[in-house]
Amino acid sequence: MADHTQELRQLMKEAGISSFRNLSDRSEVSLNTITKLRCGQADLIYYKDLDRLANCLKVAIAELISKFSDLKPQTQNLQIAQSELLTKLEFQQDVLIKLESMLLQLPTVVYAISKNPDLPARNLLPLLRPLDNLLQDWGIEAIATVGSEVDYNPKLHQLMGSESIQAGDRVLVRYTGYVRGDQLLYRARVSSIKEQTIQN
Q1: What is the C-alpha separation between 9 and 11, in angstroms, rounded?
Q2: Are residues 19 and 71 in the same domain?
Q3: pLDDT at 82
Q4: 156-166 as b/e, with b when 16 or more CB fall inside 10 Å?
């Protein structure tokens, strides 16, 4: 296992960081994680920690992985694997940024509802906007609005309940489905209008 301590000390010096403890405090990353960097195990560090370290050291994440990983791209396959890992990590970070407000606030709202069941559900609607924005960015569209009545299409709809119906019969959308262009991601779950009327 290679020792990259001197390389790390050089980057710290250039960034005005005096010690590993100081680097840990500034980046809010544990000393154990910094030890992984010193041992050439940057590929084993979580993206969020790599991002914090890179910001403190004023280098790109790709450079950090390249300098402090013993999985050097000696072959084309290793180079491709490293590139794919970085792309995956960047993608995950991008998704987290888009959903940040929902991820941070939704658990608090759920807790508030558990303490106050009379809290209006409409207060949740603004929290779901980041998810709508993300789906829009990815070109993902809802098949139909929940509560709407549509003609049954077995290619797009999954029938709930026991009643047998034919294509073109009117159905009620219970759970929306999604498509991306011509690709079906999830069928919308629907129930027969007749069966719904009987239940009511």
Answers
A1: 5
A2: yes
A3: 64
A4: bbebbbeeebe
Residue type, 130: P
Q: Whole-structure pTM over 0.70, yes or no?
A: no
Which residues, in sequence order, are CB contacts of 138 under 8 Å at separation 6+? 180
Same domain for 87 and 147, yes or no, is no
Q: What is the pLDDT of residues 102-155, one digit of tens each?
A: 766 766 676 777 777 777 766 777 777 888 888 888 888 888 888 889 999 999
Which helix (H) or strand (E) segment holds residue 35: the answer is helix 31-38
3-state secondary structure 166-191: CCCCEEEEEECCEEECCEEEECEEEE
Whole-angstrom distance, CA of residue 23 vs CA of residue 186: 46
Strand, coil or helix: 86: helix
Which range marks the domain in which residue 127 is found? 101-137
